[in-house]
Amino acid sequence: MKKSILSIALIAALAGCGQSGGAGSEGGARSQIRIVGSSTVYPFTKAVAERFAQLNPQFKAPILESTGTGAGLKLFCAGVGAQHPDVANASRRIKASELADCQKNGVNQVVEVQVGIDGLALIEANNAAPLQLSLEDVYKALAANPYGKPNTTKTWRDVNPALPAVAIQVYGPPPTSGTRDALAEMILEKGCAQNAEMKALKQSDEDKYKDVCTKVREDGAFIEAGENDNLLVQKVSANPGAIGVMGYSFLEENKDKVRGISLGGIMPTTATISSFEYPGARPLYIYVKGEHVNAIPGIKEFLAEFAKAWVPGGYLAQHGLIPSPADAQAKAAAAATGLTAVAANELK
Known about the structure:
D-Maltodextrin-Binding Protein, domain 2; nine-stranded mixed β-sheet; 14 helices
């Protein structure tokens, strides 16, 4: 009973804020959806938000901020109320520790919706000599302490004698980005785990294993390029020999300037990513605050528009989003309508 009264009071307070028409200032009124998070998911959500606003003139256009996945989820999980976002874009799944932070702050209805698939692509300038890398090559080039020893490599030839004597210069995302997490888990760790000693270390000391396998070097070979993927493309295209780490959708949009790099003999393409053959294939998500659904106008309609857009042949394909498999789409559509909270025991 007490919970119900608190819930009703919260909805009334949020709705009251919404009716007075402010744009979402801290602690003030808000009558439009506020979305934060991943720069990779941002262009897809932006396209949906624009279509939603066109088709639903009774609602104000959503406010979007590209903050990076980690920073976005931190804002999303900070609490319930008009000063906190309603939706978080994420280029990786929410972590168990992040969900715990949500719950600690009263955000108990975290709805997970997988919106499609993207690839974590390594890119190079179109006028550069083509690189072909293995997961182990990337790990040896970018790890702070490959196999537990300080990284002294300067060129790709230092990493692998079959590679050119070109300086290692990699532009990539900051630690707040889901793309950085994906680089660590899907590329670096997989390259590291091919070593028998590292496999044994995982069994004996998982914390040390994680540090050795996923910590990125900080001596200038890896350059944090911020959350602006278009700027990253410019840096790589202007520096033949440099490579970049970014979402496949941005590679697709900039094929006149950059191309993908083969990983383990597999190029990033729509086909290899949708089949998960490409090692950098990854699901993309949005997280919705269930406590806000009946309080901030338009959230249900926004979710319905997203569900129309992510299907094969939907307009998000024009923006580079690769549709999820049919079973994942069905689960996502059910989550978007049923608003079932993600379970903590499903997360890492």
